[in-house]
Amino acid sequence: MIAVVGGGIAGLAAAYRLQQAGHDPTVFEASDTVGGLAATYETEGDPIEAYYHHLSATEETIVELAEELGVDDRLDWLWGHDSYYVDGVVHPLNTAWEIAAYPHLSFHDKFRLGMLTLGVDVRGGIPSFDSYDDLEAYEHVPIKEFLLEHTTQGVYDFFFEPLLRAKFGSRKEDVSAAWLLGRIQFRGERDLLKGEKLGYFDGSFAVLVDALVEAVGRENVETGARVQDIDFGESVQSLTVEQGGTATEHAVDDVVVTTMPHLLERWTGYECDIEFQGSVCAVVGMDEPVTDTYWLNIADEAPFGALIEHTNFVSPERYGGERLLYCASYIQSQDEELWQLSDDEIRDRWLGGIEDMFPEFDRDSVNWMEIARNPRTAPIYERGYLDMVVPYDLAGDIADSIYYAGMASRAQYPERSLNGGIEAGYAAADALLEE
User: Where is the Amine oxidase domain (predicted)?
Assistant: First the structure.
């Protein structure tokens, strides 16, 4: 038997790839539902992800998978509008005209920022169009040092620093320039008249997850099945799985681990040096909108890192007319105050934060608020990150017949994504099939 440990998008993709090659893998998922970070809440209409999701135009593998599974007709490409909240004002930053009108950067700042986002190095006065192609050349370059050299002090202070603080908190200066350049490439092209088109499934990403489960076979996906141990010598021998209070040993020929690397270390002793940050993410169901933008980055002091108003991207009609807003923050340590707060305390603090930013907001319009927490939702893309990724084939590190496709995989760089999860699952399955 081939065992796939983890029923998130990477595990389901690995199982799908193996099944397409004629194998009959079994997926073991510890929680009661599959999907991982793409798990959903119920609403008055379509389900909504507990953690915000959308696709960028560069994420081609997930689109191809949707086509294979026959759900590509459910994938919509919509205009996602971004804004920046600075000094109490929401500044739209979608079109060339809005960017030109942004008052917190000089003309020179905007020119240098624009050239960077287009991938053009203008240092020295002679444009270079390939300076940023080799991301690994910037793996050990501090992001602040890079930005000050390749843009301006103003671009760093009034554009990137607040974004980095919201994304990486106290670890922001540990991040490499390679992450930023890769992130710029990842986002794809922007229409200078309309902004950026983003992908979202009619019915949520549960549409894709459900189609994957059907393709793999529901009978081959075990939920509430927590892996306790992997027994191996020169090669993997068995898997001990606890389900319903009973531990069972399953003889296996191969195992694909798609969990976070700390579990791989627990089961096999393999140490991964990548550090991860957690997140707290709330979905707020409301009668009225808060803003008219989809993604609101925040430069001012706020108790959350960003506001993502989902129903300014996807029609509220899909949710029974209700307005849905994400409030989200990353944490770098579980010792941080935010992580220690109760859900009620977070609710009060975050709704108060929205009131401070938008005095017209009435918390009586809030119908419900669900709060999700995960201690490991994203890597910290620090300098030297690529030296720490976990190989897909662990034969040379642990034993034969053990493969890895979790978030510490190469495919989850320069930014973790559902597309990267699928690519990681495919890569680990392909490594197994090559043996």
Answer: 9-433
